[in-house]
Input
Amino acid sequence: MAETVFTYAAPGLKFGRGASAEIGFDLQQLTRAAGRPRVLVVTDPGVAATGHPARIAGQIADRGFEVTTYDRSRVEPTDESLEDAVAFARDGGPWDAVVAIGGGSAIDTAKAVNLLVTNEGSLLDYINAPVGEGRAPTAPLLPMVAVPTTTGTGSESTTICVLDVLALKVKTGISHARLRPTLAVVDPDLTMSQPAMVTASCGMDILCHALESYTARWFAHFDAKTPEQRVPYCGANPIADMWAEKSLSLLAGAFRTAVRDGDDSEAREQMALAATFAGLGFGNAGVHIPHANAYPIAGRVRAYRPEGYPQEEPIVPHGMAVSLTAPAAFALTFDAAPVRHLRAASLLGGESGAAGPDALPSVLRSLMRDIQIPNGLAEVGYLASDVDDLVEGSLQQQRLLATAPRPVTADDLAGVFRGSMEHW
Output
């Protein structure tokens, strides 16, 4: 029997310049603790250096809260970095609310903290199977306010926490509806300091969120589920489509400008809107092949260190990792949903009348070249001999691959990786 039901959920949203100054008031509406409620602010060293977390913490304190800041979140979180944050939070608790200020890494760190200060067990208990136990939380989480300072990850809207498990050299995650933040506060002013490569990488994450949710398997093409079987990613659906199409339209007009001129406040605001809309879409429809491939690309990095990111350790940033196989992935999925692929290419400014499997990939390659995304997997250090290992890592992401509009085999993934070694 085919599915007849789709679901949609989203956090509360406050959007606009200056919105981050109102978080103290927002927390007053979300918490009911007697006395002086305690708030944990989670951020990272780079964002802390901008002064935004200290300002926001001060404004929260002015509203009668006791505020403690954890500023050791790691860009691209690992099991070790999350365990450090959880230990800090458990030792310093109890808390009445959590506020995440930063990119997806800080927000994902705060999600893990929120989960593990309210529920017993270890990180591995909750990590998705087969890497972890995939346990569901049994206790409610604290109110959480997510304040993105980058435009891309959509973590402020989603039910997912992404991390690298170092011993296994695999990127995986925790996924449950209770991880979704209570409120997303999107203040475009906080994104103005993003370096060009961070803007480019995060922007490609926005783009792939919108494209993957728009081309995902249609919700009614899944088998019918019982209420207990429903998961946040339910497949493409009419509401998610609306958000994805609007996000793609905004990106077509603002993405190149935001990378070229980071001081263009209008382009930054349009990118923040695009990220928000894409998050509201993919947080319900889901993502598929490019994101599944991004996990091993980021998790098995050797020596690549991109400009604009911390240089202490090698890293393939998440949005960059997602983008590197996107052209080949969308060529693979074209036949499963040709109308949607062509519509997406048109929304992104593709040539009128363009048709065939390369219509969308050609638009992506042109954009990636313009914003100086690396020219394929080879440029970030991968060889043809790595393909089997990368395929193995992607195949572990069955939760994502199940959302693809067509079945995906190991041979399909190998073809995508081989076709992504060089783009131009």
Remarks:
- The first strand starts at residue 12 and ends at 15.
- Residues 79 and 167 are 9 Å apart (CA to CA).
- Strands lie at 12-15, 38-42, 66-70, 97-102, 144-148, 160-165, 170-175, 183-186.
